[in-house]
Write a structure and sequence with these properties.
The complex is a heterodimer of chains A (about 180) and B (about 70). Chain A has about 180 residues and is an all-alpha fold. In chain A, about 60% of the residues lie in helices and about 0% in strands. Chain A is built from 8 helices and no strands. Classes of the chains: A mainly alpha (about 180), B mainly alpha (about 70).
Chain lengths: ~180, ~70
């Protein structure tokens, strides 16, 4: 019982860190609210390291996800006949905006990701083991469930099959838990 | 005027919708840097709103969190 409560508090800390970093990344990129792609970037920075390991497990470089976001924007614009020069690339130098002082808000893609994470994946995990920790790989797993959107397109831009990444994330979650 | 013929074919909505998202992000970024530059050059919110074709209240509400860069 005590372990379960302690883990709940730890998970809340993980979610807080995840949201805070996602918002910071979005604001640095001149976007008011974080999207699912910012949550994936934020997950890659979480200390448990399982999100990064999930990418590495399928021989994808986790550090290239940020470049893949820029790439998918470029590709999308190219499809409507807009070619961006390297200097003007969409996620190039952005004007950072200050963090909003009001209630925490996210883009719908991030809301969907958090819904999948907290109401789908984690509910299932906690049913199996109430002391199972929320890991960065769970965030990646939630992100792979989206078929469209910036995060899904960025996965494709870096040659990552979301189904394979989901498998790798699940494997990393199990490996992490086995070490506990 | 924008040439509608250059729009992506409607038979590929996924690509067209992704382009819409990219254009919105690009427009937002351009707006933020342009408003920042205008504030640095001493433009008033009335002038910025007029140039953007929106009301002063709307411009202020959406963009007031932008702070012009200072040299300090």
């Amino acid at each position: 019982m005590f372990k379960t409560i302690r883990q709940r508090f730890r998970d809340m800390g993980t979610i807080k860190a995840l949201c805070f970093e996602a918002e910071k990344l979005a604001n640095a990129d001149s976007q008011k609210e974080p999207g699912a792609e910012h949550f994936v970037l934020s997950a890659l920075a979480l200390p448990d390291g399982t999100a990064r390991k999930a990418f590495l497990r399928i021989h994808a470089d986790p550090d290239s996800f940020r470049a893949a976001i820029a790439q998918q924007y470029e590709d999308a614009l190219q499809n409507v006949g807009i070619a961006l020069s390297r200097d003007a690339e969409i996620s190039g130098e952005a004007t950072p905006i200050p963090t909003s002082k009001g209630p925490y808000k996210t883009q719908p893609s991030a809301q969907a990701l958090m819904q999948t994470l907290t109401k789908g994946i984690m509910v299932k995990e906690k049913k199996a083991d109430s002391t199972a920790p929320l890991l960065s790989a769970h965030v990646v797993l939630a992100a792979t469930s989206a078929q469209y959107g910036v995060a899904a397109r960025a996965f494709r831009a870096m040659g990552v099959d979301p189904a394979k990444l989901a498998e790798a994330a699940t494997a990393e979650i199990l490996a992490y838990r086995a070490c506990l | 005027m924008i040439n509608l013929k250059s729009l992506p074919p409607a038979d590929n909505p996924a690509e067209a919708l992704a382009a819409v998202v990219a254009l919105r992000v690009m427009a937002d970024k351009l707006e933020h840097s342009a408003v920042n530059a205008a504030l640095e050059q001493g433009w008033s919110w009335s002038q910025i709103a007029e140039a953007l074709g929106v009301s002063k209240q709307a411009a202020h509400k959406r963009l007031a969190n932008l702070q012009p860069k200072t040299d300090s």
